[in-house]
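By convention, the token line describes the chain's fold. To illustrate:
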Amino acid sequence: TGDAWFDQTTLPRSPGGLISAGMQCRVAGHEHVYVAGDCGSYPGPDWMPKQAHIADLQARAAAANLLAELDGKSATATFKTELICIVDMLDRGMLVWRTPERLLTLPPSWFGHQAKRFYEWWYLRQYR
């Protein structure tokens, strides 16, 4: 469900209480208002994840579209719908990669666990 403060706004809401947005991350009916990440509800498949990777893609699209809009251009940037994760079992890891066109799962392996540890280090280093 959406945050309680959403109730104090005129932002359009999804049935689940999140802020409704299109594939360009623009909030319908609100000029220069965009949303990215977990607080937004976007068109797409039911399996579309709420994960940092998707929030990053949405934020890039939202920022590009806001800058374009402020420059008098059309907001055309969208984000890629995909799920990429390694399910880590502490000694093994299993890759799951899903897009609207394909689904790939690799069996659990030691390499999967090491790949997850490396990716976490690589991704989080920008925030440390």
